Structure formats: structure tokens, C-alpha cells
């Protein structure tokens, strides 16, 4: 997730081996751990203009990016969901999970079936950025200048 000159991401590289939020400063080429959860992994982070909302241990948290502190919210309501199996070769456009529009609004980036695609607003080619098999790429976002796409991947090398 991009915010100013910082990329926020989930990683279990900390001492407790739990998924926590980390921040990578592009200018300083340095990463630092932002949250310190040791009992639960952080899941479902989403960035807004000045904060990141995420879940940990069944509770919602709001991380204020200006001060770097997370505040606990309420427990989310339970909802019914079930897994589904995709049979046959369905078009990725029917399975879009995540989308982001570039700062220039000339292209959009989508995640579908674990791959990242960029799509023009009007005319041009649809580009499969990742073209990976057996690897999932998720949560693509444009850089503030619109020249780079960042995404989470479960690729080990």
C-alpha cells in the first residue's frame, strides 16, 4: 500500500514470526516494523488517505499514519461465506478481486485468479504483469507517480 514515499506491507520477518505491518521508505531504502502483534497475524489491510484499517485477532484496528499508532475498534460481525471451486477456464475478468486506478487515470490495475493485469482506460493492450503459475499475487496498487505497480506475492524466490 503506497502512502507518500512509503510502501506499507505485511510480513512475518519479525522476531515473533507473526504477520505485522511494515513500512519501506523508498528514499532511505530501509524497512521498519510498524505493528508488534505477537498473538495474531494481521489480515485484510486497506489504506485510506491518512490511515490503514486492518484486522488482528477478530478485532478491527486503525493505524494513524501521521503518528504510527494503531487504535483498537470493535469486533466485526460474523458473516457466512463458503469456498467455491472454479471449474473450467473462466475469463479472469469474471473473477476480479482487487482494482486500483492509476494517478493519471489512463490505466487501471486488477488482480484476478492470482495474477496482476493492467488495463487501459480506452484503447490499448491488456497486460498480464505477473504471468505466474502456482504463485498468487494480490492487492496491486499504483505508485504515486503512476510508473510502478506494487503487489503482494507468495513467491519464495
Give a written overview of the molecule.
This protein is mainly beta. The chain has 2 domains: 2-72, no CATH class; 92-152, no CATH class. The chain is built from no helices and 14 strands. The protein has strands spanning 2-3, 6-11, 20-25, 30-33, 42-47, 51-56, 59-64, 69-72, 96-101, 107-112, 115-120, 127-128, 137-142, 149-153. The strands form 4 sheets. It has a 4-stranded antiparallel β-sheet, with no helix packed on it. A hairpin with a 2-residue loop joins strand 6 (51-56) and strand 7. The chain is globular, with a radius of gyration of 17 Å. The protein starts with a strand and ends with a strand.
Summarize the structure.
Helices cover 0% and strands 45% of the residues. The protein is an all-beta fold and 157 residues long. It has a four-stranded antiparallel sheet with strand order 1-2-3-4, with no helix packed on it. The chain has a four-stranded antiparallel sheet with strand order 5-6-7-8, with no helix packed on it. A four-stranded antiparallel sheet has the order 9-10-11-12, with no helix packed on it.
Which features would summarize this protein structure in a list?
157 residues; mainly beta; four-stranded antiparallel beta sheet; 45% strand; globular
Amino acid at each position: 500500500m503506497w502512502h507518500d514515499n512509503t510502501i506499507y506491507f505485511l510480513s512475518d520477518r519479525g522476531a515473533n514470526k507473526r504477520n505485522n505491518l511494515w513500512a519501506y521508505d523508498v528514499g532511505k531504502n530501509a524497512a521498519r516494523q510498524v505493528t508488534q502483534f505477537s498473538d495474531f497475524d494481521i489480515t485484510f489491510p486497506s489504506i485510506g488517505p491518512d490511515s490503514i484499517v486492518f484486522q488482528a485477532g477478530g478485532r478491527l484496528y486503525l493505524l494513524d499514519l501521521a503518528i504510527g499508532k494503531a487504535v483498537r475498534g470493535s469486533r466485526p460481525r460474523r458473516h457466512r461465506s463458503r469456498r467455491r471451486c472454479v471449474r473450467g477456464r473462466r475469463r479472469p475478468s469474471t473473477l476480479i478481486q482487487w482494482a486500483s486506478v492509476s494517478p493519471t487515470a489512463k490505466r487501471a490495475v486488477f488482480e484476478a485468479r492470482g495474477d496482476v493485469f493492467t488495463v487501459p482506460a480506452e484503447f490499448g493492450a491488456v497486460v498480464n504483469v505477473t504471468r505466474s503459475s502456482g504463485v498468487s499475487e494480490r492487492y496491486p496498487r499504483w505508485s504515486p507517480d503512476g510508473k510502478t505497480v506494487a503487489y503482494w506475492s507468495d513467491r519464495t524466490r
